[in-house]
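Hello support,

Our group uses your service weekly, and this is the first time we've seen a run hang past the timeout. The protein is Putative phosphoesterase FHP05_10410. I'm not sure whether the cause is the sequence or the server load. Input pasted verbatim:
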Amino acid sequence: MKYGIALFPNKEIQDEANSYRKRYDSHYSLIPPHITVKDPFRMTEKEMKDLIPEMKKLANNMKPFTISIHKVSSFQPLSNTIYLKVEPVEELMELHEKLHSGKFPTLQGNPFIPHITIGQNLKDDEFSDVYSSCRMKSFKLEDRIDRFQLLYQLENGSWTVYETFVFGEEKL
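Update from on-call engineer: The timeout came from a worker crash unrelated to the input. Re-ran successfully.
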């Protein structure tokens, strides 16, 4: 089965992201706005059941933290993806690092750039127009993150929550 780990921001940030995603993100219907902290990986259900206690332990040892978004950026020239840039606070970077070490699958593609995708798979002209207009806008979005979600992918390509791990909880 294919799994991933993400953070889901508050309604204000989701609404802002969705105002763009409806038009510019080909994955709009597959998953709500999120910050991917561990790219999709394959694992059997038994392997996952063995890994869940590690996620509980990790979450239990984390404290809530605040994320901030002030601007839009892109992954050009690698791809025509536009995103809300999440400031890389220490706690977020630490969470990502811990999810890629120890008993967790360590395969990692690109460097970790915290973001919320608002447009992807755009044609070059559309990308240029959308990115130019988005860059002129400034954002002042914040959220307190106090949990992460383990997701799994359904047959239709959409993602759904398998389990939620709340920071600082003693449920091992």
